[in-house]
Structure formats: structure tokens, C-alpha cells
Here is the input.
Amino acid sequence: MGGFLFGFDTAVISGAEQAIQIVWNLNALEHGFTVSIALIGTVLGALFGGVPCDKYGRKKTLMGIGVLYFISAFGS
Here is the structure.
């Protein structure tokens, strides 16, 4: 599951990175930092995503992730 999420997030970031640079008018350093920090977050999520799955089960973990995505989307 971690590999799937990493691949999915990488594809999303790759598709959005040019639009992010244009919308926020980022220079090369800011653009690189923004894309790399998003990828670092997905690597950490893939590495440590198994911990709550082992403790609570995959279904409950995915439901929790869904709630967090909803909260972040609502906050955005």
C-alpha cells in the first residue's frame, strides 16, 4: 500500500508542479523546495504508514486518512 500511495502522490505532484510554480510565482529554489518537501512527505508516509495499519488494521487506517484528507481539503 505504501508503494501505491508513493506512486500516486508522485504522479499528482508531477502533474501539478508547473501549475504550482506559475500560480504562486515561485523562483527555482522555492519551486524545488516545494516539490521536494511534498515528495519527502510521501516517502515518510510510505515508510511509516504500516505502523497504524498493523495496530488498527487497514480499513480503520484508510478511514482515518480519508477523514484527514477531508479536513485538509475543507481547510484549503
User: Anything to note?
Assistant: The radius of gyration is 14 Å. The chain has a mean pLDDT of 83. The longest helix spans residues 2-23. The chain has one domain: 2-75.
